[in-house]
Structures are given as C-alpha cells and as structure tokens.
Amino acid sequence: MVVGPGYKQEVLHVLNIQKYKVFYGLASPPTSYGGYGGNAKEDAKYTFEYPTNWKSEVVNKVSKGTQGVDGRVFNDALTMLTEKRDSEHEIDGQKYYDVEIVSPDIRYLMTFTVNMGKVYAFLLWARNEESLRHIHQSFRTV
Fold it and tell me: What fold, for 7-141?
C-alpha cells in the first residue's frame, strides 16, 4: 500500500480524531501588542491546547491596550445563553474558578485564576463538547 502525505489527516478525519496545537501565552503588558503569544514556548506564562482546525488571531492594539487581551483562537460564533453553572477546581495547588454557560447550540467555559499577582481569564466556546472540555482542562499557569 502506498501512503501519500495527506493520508494521516484523512484517517484522523474519518475516525473523528482531533489533533491539538499548544498556545503559549506570554501575559505581556498592555503596552505591547502584535505578534506576542501563540508559539514562543520559552517565555510562556500560561498554555492551552486547541484543535488544529481552529484559527489563532494576532491581538490588535486596541484589544491589547484597553482590554488586556493576550491571545485569541476561535472557531464558532456566539449564540443565545440559557443556563449558567459555577464551580472551582485545583491543579498543583493553584485554584481556578470556572463559569459554564449553556445555550441551545454552543457551550461557553470561562476559567479565572490569580498567579504571582496577575489575573488570568481564559474564555472559550465551541459546539463540540469533547474539544471544549479538552481545551478547558489543558489550561494552567506555569
């Protein structure tokens, strides 16, 4: 059997197996923007995994400077919210506060934590609950 370069991707698609990329967040100050975060493992302050078919977006000056947004990956659009759940969890002694919002078409998960005097807010949404849970569970400060 001859296997071409796209064979692995086709098998993964047929088996509904998702591959993930790692986002390396720098938590850089609002005065820096454009090109920071996403692929620089050396200086990462937090990480999370996201499906390879999602897109990452360079944060613009306004979002970075006025909202403190460090990185953005996306796949789905927002929809109407119908239910909200709060919870907490701990990883290696670090406490995380979770908010889950459910809607008819999509699920949203938010996690907040404080580490070394910095607040980290991790917000994500997706239709595929398995991917959403995987991404959410992979988030941690380092």
Answer: Protein Transport Mog1p; Chain A (3.40.1000)
